[in-house]
Design goal:
Chain lengths: ~270, ~260
């Protein structure tokens, strides 16, 4: 694993974000400095409302930084960067499309697939089917999202975020609304996909076990205004298993992160 | 057992049974209280008059139907376009919406005389009245459908690099469809009201005109026959809208039955 290479893919230096206009300003994120190497999996943890999602929107260019800079590939981000995959806690699948057509959506929008889409539809459908199968949803392509369980919807959501092979994957509490068993199952689904494809990932979560299980580096954020108060590399070997999450080495890291957040609250 | 089947059959028969019972009560009340035909004709009498005068009724029904349908069609086109513009752009919204509300508050019966000054007596005032009365709910619903796109969905699209046009066609319009069809059910009945108002205020054809002139001749039974004709057309057009809605936006009902 090479978390930080010579030229990081994403670089935030002193990035801050202020919401609102004159009078009612809210500092959502203060002075965030971090860099993400290509293929690195980072997790951002912290109490709710601490600006984790803001951090994510800064990196993707959905929101411009108020001060400081955000660079991707060494270039300053001013508008939404292309070729990002996103998944939220709410699966936001389109109810009027089948699962398959939902996952085809990025290919209809992102170049170069957009140009080739009509002529090569069959090829893309095959790609979707393969990806669905790899997350355990083989044969569910014809179902509408509302015919699927919450866990299956979230699997489809992951597929949609990954189908166009984005360089960067943004996950905003993607498993937050799922039951514990489904959540842990999806951790391993995500880890397998990542081990196979090595997309650069930013995972926002408040589940510390989830962060430690999945990430190469965990960043802990303070309460609003959000600041990064700890950077913790996780050097546990991969693939990590659910068994590992109960072993001392793993549990110690979780406790360390928890202590850090508690101290901040005290 | 077939109890479920027969229950279902009963459910389908219910509207007919209720109508029949209402007519029966009406008939008995007319006989019992010796109500004169000029005040309130008995349903059986209305039925007989309908059969006697079916030719003129049918002709005027078709007249009202085509003016209504044309006005309704124009309302769909204009309503969808304006609704999309309002829902997609905050500028258009703030510019047009107050005007639309003001316009909608104007009693449509008041504009018919103006239309007649401009266009004379004929189908044109009926078409335009049907149009202006029915396009407002379509605008509001289409705009609502667009305005309520989940922010996360928008973020997903934007982070894929989608243009505003792509967000509109891939998310906005499909999402607005159930809202559109819901509004059509309201709009079609309003359109009938619009064209009948125009025919009543100043027309020389159509069911509204027929009812008004029959009323003037104290022919109350024919007036009621006209009323029923409008009601039947309204129900049929409503059913048509529902059928189209079910075919095109099945997803919005999550596979459940809609009535």
């Amino acid at each position: 694993m090479t978390p930080e290479m010579a030229a990081p893919l994403v670089e935030l230096s002193g990035a801050s974000l202020v919401y609102g206009r004159e009078g009612e300003k809210t500092l959502a994120l203060a002075d965030a400095t971090l860099s993400i190497g290509k293929g690195e999996f980072i997790a951002v943890v912290g109490p709710s409302g601490c600006g984790k999602s803001t951090l994510m929107k800064l990196v993707t260019g959905l929101l411009p930084a108020t001060s400081g800079s955000v660079k991707v590939h060494g270039e300053v981000v001013r508008k939404p960067i292309k070729g990002v995959g996103m998944a939220f806690q709410n699966a936001t699948l389109m109810p009027w499309r089948t699962t398959r057509d939902n996952i085809l959506l990025p290919l209809e929008v992102v170049e170069p697939h957009k140009r080739r889409f009509r002529a090569n539809r069959a090829e893309y459908v095959a790609k979707v089917e393969a990806l669905l199968a790899s997350v355990g949803l083989g044969g569910f392509g014809d179902k509408f999202p509302w015919q699927l369980s919450g866990g299956m919807q979230q699997r489809s959501n992951l597929c949609r975020a990954l189908i166009h092979e984005p360089e960067i994957l943004m996950l905003d509490e993607p498993f937050g609304a799922l039951d514990a068993f489904t959540r842990e199952e999806l951790w391993s689904v995500l880890q397998n996909l990542w081990l196979e494809r090595r997309f650069t990932t930013v995972l926002v979560t408040h589940d510390l076990r989830e962060a430690v299980y999945l990430a190469d580096t965990v960043y802990v954020m303070s309460r609003r205004p959000g600041r990064i108060i700890l950077k913790r590399p996780i050097e546990l070997p991969r693939p990590r298993t659910l068994e590992d999450t109960f072993k001392p080495g793993f549990v110690d890291i979780v406790h360390e992160l928890r202590d850090c957040i508690h101290k901040e609250h005290a | 057992m077939t109890s479920e089947k027969s229950l279902n059959a009963l459910r389908l028969a219910m509207p007919w049974l209720v109508t029949l019972v209402l007519f029966l009560l009406w008939e008995l009340a007319c006989i019992g209280f010796r109500i004169e035909e000029i005040v309130l004709p008995r349903p059986s009498r209305i039925f007989v008059v309908t059969l006697e005068r079916w030719q003129i009724l049918l002709e005027f029904c078709l007249q009202t139907l085509w003016t209504t349908v044309i006005g309704f069609g124009l309302a769909i086109v204009a309503g969808v376009l304006i609704g999309l513009a309002i829902g997609a752009s905050p500028f258009v919204y703030s510019g047009l919406y107050p005007l639309l509300i003001a316009f909608n508050a104007v009693p449509k019966v008041a504009i018919v005389p103006i239309l007649m000054i401009w266009l004379g007596v004929g189908p044109a005032p009926a078409i335009i009245t049907a149009f202006v009365i029915s396009f407002f709910p379509i605008v509001v619903n289409v705009a609502t459908g667009l305005a309520t796109i989940e922010p996360e969905m928008r973020d997903v699209m934007r982070s894929l690099g989608a243009s505003n046009y792509e967000i509109l066609t891939k998310v906005g319009i499909p999402r607005a469809m159930p809202y559109l069809f819901a509004s059509l059910k309201v709009a079609i009945t309003l359109a009938f009201i619009g064209s009948v108002i125009a025919e009543t205020v100043g027309g020389n054809r159509g069911i509204g005109f027929l009812m008004l002139s029959a009323g003037a001749r104290n022919d109350t039974a024919t007036t009621f026959a006209g009323l029923f004709a409008i009601a039947i057309m309204g129900v049929l057009m409503y059913a048509l809208c529902v059928a189209v809605e079910k075919r095109t936006t099945r997803w919005a009902f999550r596979g459940e039955l809609v009535h």
